Amino acid sequence: MILGVLGSSISVKKRVVKHDTRCLLHIGIEEEEEEEEEEEEEEEEEEEEEEEEEEERAQRKRRRRGIRRKRRKKRRRRKRSRRKCTEDEKLGGRYELSFCF
């Protein structure tokens, strides 16, 4: 051998093959249990994602509601200030520009 000439030794590893001593029925049951566990985990993850999406939607809704309220409030203030200005003009008095926008 060429390897013998180079001075290196060859070690042959024995391969130990482990035989499954369980019967096929038990193996099938275990595989089904593993599949069921995986399905349950996937369902739980989907439920968590749905809950997060619902929370995000609720937050957006609250935010929009708050923005709408602010806009309405500003609109009302502007209308009031315009009314004040026009009433003052009708009376012939002067009005402050700070009330008019």
Provide an overview of this structure.
The chain has 101 residues and is mostly helical. The protein has one domain (21-99). It has helices at residues 2-6, 24-91. The chain is rod-shaped, with a radius of gyration of 40 Å. Residues 59-83 have a biased composition (Basic residues). Residues 30-56 have a biased composition (Acidic residues). Residues 27-87 are annotated as: Disordered.
SSE string, helices as H and strands as E: HH
Q: Spans with pLDDT under 50 lasting ≥5 residues?
A: 1-5
Structural class, from helix and strand content? mainly alpha
Treating each run of at least 4 consecutive H or I residues as one helix, how many helices?
2
Termini distance?
Answer: 102 Å
Tell me the count of domains: 1
Shape: rod-shaped
Number of strands: 0
Percent of residues in β-strands: under 5%
- Average residue pLDDT: 75
Note the main sheet: none
Radius of gyration: 40 Å
In helices, the fraction of residues equals over 70%
Biased composition (Basic residues): 59-83
Region (Disordered): 27-87
Biased composition (Acidic residues): 30-56
Write the layout of secondary structure elements.
Layout: H1 2-6, H2 24-91
Region (Disordered): 27-87
Biased composition (Acidic residues): 30-56
Biased composition (Basic residues): 59-83
Any key phrases for this structure?
single chain; 101 residues; mainly alpha; 2 helices; 72% helix; rod-shaped; disordered N terminus
